[in-house]
Amino acid sequence: MKIDPFALELADPLATAAGTIDAREGFTVAYRHRGERGVGEATPLPGWTESIEACREALDRAAAVADEDASERDGSGHGPALLELDAAETPAARHGFATALLDADARADGVSLYQWFDADVGSVSSVPVNATIGDAPVAATVEAAEEAIESGFEALKCKVGARSVAADGRRLRAVREVVSEDVELRVDANAAYDRETAREAVEEFASAGVSYVEQPLAADDVAGHRELRGRGVDIALDESLSEYVPQTILDADAADVLILKPMVVGGPDNAHALAMRARDHGVEPVVTTTVDAVIARTAAVHVAAAIPAVRACGLATADRLAEDLAPDSCPVADGRIAVPQSSGLGVEVDYD
Ligand SMILES: O=C(O)CCC(=O)c1ccccc1C(=O)O
Ligand SMILES: [Mg+2]
């Protein structure tokens, strides 16, 4: 297993109620499996996943198991090595190795990763995506919304909760005025509110025609989120998935929508399985990145492509990066992101 660190600056930092994301650091993972070299990416986001140090340690541990097994036994060390990586403890590390294995497996089988997940989805050339609009004053928010609409997005996700409910209400109504009613408006509070403020916020968002609010309350407040449902704006849970296993949220009827970040749930395979389980419970899955580099972003696109008739996903995050690890394999046009059709992940990383 080959583990290489990288660090990427953001050209367009993402301002949220929980702080601004302005750089991403992680590791590429390369692993030979079934005669193919698979590539993966582990890009931890502290607060959401393990730290960069814990990620490195976990990957080194998995590499030791995989490499020892490969040299001393039958070369099938990926099983025990993957089991070294706990999806709850070190989700980014597991994501990195699992993606490399999935890439190699799908390449060996000669199918694109999304079809490797589910051959029955048929051919999916693109999936719908939302534009991601950070926290900003009214004028800049409206400008970002207009720009997104001009480039063809039909869903906008606006960060809220860094300002008062009244101030966010002004931002959202101003956006509503310049975009047509057909445009889906979502918001993401990143756990900014207490219960009382959240009820006021939901009322305000309903009047601006918001479809769903991501994580209005703290990650551990499952009961609070359940009580917020049915007030005219759907409830989507995101941070709660780094606190609880998804089954807890599904069993508690705490969400209308589950935001699945492969980097946070421990890999594209886990994200796909959880998406299907959510659907079975009548909860809609939405796949998003954690503003990752091209390998993880592309893996997330394959997860979304394997979900039949998936809602707009939060995958249009490439433009925020000042640089990337390889050319973009999933360009965005007209509000949709392209799904690579070559075998495996479809990302060619130049190691020289
Ligand atoms: O969903 C999107 O549109 C983009 C992804 C996004 O918002 C995000 C990116 C990094 C970390 C957290 C989040 C989030 O959804 O809260
Ligand atoms: Mg969110």
The CATH homologous superfamily of the largest domain: Enolase-like C-terminal domain
Structural class: alpha/beta
SSE order, one letter for each helix or strand:
EEEHHHHEEHEHEHEHEHHEHHEHEE
Bound molecules: 2-succinylbenzoate, magnesium ion
Number of domains: 2
Outline: globular
Mean pLDDT: 96
Rg, Å, rounded: 20 Å
Compute the separation of the termini in Å: 17 Å
CATH A-level architecture of the largest domain: Alpha-Beta Barrel
- Placed side by side, the strands forming the largest sheet appear as 5-6-7-8-9-10-11
From the 3D structure, determine the CATH topology of the largest domain.
Answer: TIM Barrel
Major sheet size, sense and barrel closure: 7 strands, parallel
Cofactor: a divalent metal cation
Family: Belongs to the mandelate racemase/muconate lactonizing enzyme family. MenC type 1 subfamily.
Function: Converts 2-succinyl-6-hydroxy-2,4-cyclohexadiene-1-carboxylate (SHCHC) to 2-succinylbenzoate (OSB).
Pathway: Quinol/quinone metabolism; menaquinone biosynthesis; Quinol/quinone metabolism; 1,4-dihydroxy-2-naphthoate biosynthesis; 1,4-dihydroxy-2-naphthoate from chorismate: step 4/7
